Amino acid sequence: MRLNIAMIGTGFIARAHANAFHQAGRFFSLPFELATKVVCGRDPSRLEAFRRQWGWEEGLTDWEAAISRPDIQIVDIAVPNRLHAPIAIRAARAGKIVFCEKPLALTAAEGKAMAEAARGRPTLVWFNYRRSPAVRFAKQLIEEGRLGRIFHFRSYYFNQSGADPTKASTWRYRRSEAGSGAISDLLSHSFDMALYLNSNILELSALAHTFVSGREVDDAVMLMARFANGSLGSFEASRFGIGRRNGMGFEIYGERGSLAFDQEDMNRLRFFDRSDGASLQAARELLVTGPDHPYSANFWKPGHIIGYEHTFIATVADFLLALAEDKPFHPDFDDALRTQELIEAIESSAASGRWQSA
Fold this sequence. Notes:
Blueprint: E1 2-8, H1 12-27, E2 33-40, H2 44-53, E3 58-60, H3 63-67, E4 74-77, H4 84-93, E5 97-100, H5 108-117, E6 123-125, H6 133-143, E7 150-158, H7 175-178, H8 182-197, E8 201-209, E9 220-227, E10 232-238, E11 247-254, E12 257-262, E13 268-273, E14 284-287, H9 308-324, H10 333-352, E15 356-357
Parallel strand pairs: 1-2, 1-4, 2-3, 4-5, 5-6, 7-10
Antiparallel strand pairs: 7-11, 8-9, 8-15, 9-10, 11-12, 12-13, 13-14
């Protein structure tokens, strides 16, 4: 069966999505054929260049016309945050499958409206780091009880993009288009990872800060959190992590062991097993490329590392396999709405200086 895609957006993240649409069927045996039918953008010359380079059949400047077409089954949203809700709601009401870049929306109210509009429709939110093989393997080890009761979940996400003055005029630094700064751009990924690997967050206490005078959004955020499973959490995210390009990671400490991961070294997972004899107790640096690791049968042979783009490819493939079996896919709009609610709890806590129920 062929599924035609209309993608709105021609920027950096649209390239990652487009590549995944082309590559998913090459690495996975899929029950659907994906067709990159229509790509939408505002600038006609840029749109045409993108269309040619990334193999789209048509280019349109009117996204509403694209998603209303009966020959389109999937609408993929790869545009600034302020446009997520209007496009997703319109697409869902038109009966389309909807993919949306993170964060879900500008506000929790918008996110709730999106989730309600898409109720009963398959949805996908591009929290792609869940599909790093090392992260999936961490999830497997936790579910097997290899860490036992979890005590601490430590998360960080640092890059240095905020220190670049040339980026100050882009949409990510305007509250009306982004919603927030490091909170929505970076910490949304960290929250999704925490919800996936650990448990729900019950309450938090946050501090947000803007280093550049006059900037509309936060540059950095720190917070403490209490999880439903009884563990304690700490989160940091900053666009002023000088020397870090995409330093997203976590450390998890349990009664039987610990795990650590960093996206800048995404093929490795650090694992400590407390059950080892005293003379052998040490952290193991696991190269999670197979054999018998998540996705090792789909990508390259053991020891041949994979990259950022493979997390998007695996996301698409997992969605299509779930769709064929009529099974739920995660993260969907409801999952991302929970992340959006946590973002608002951070902003409330940072403003009041108090603990906030989440």
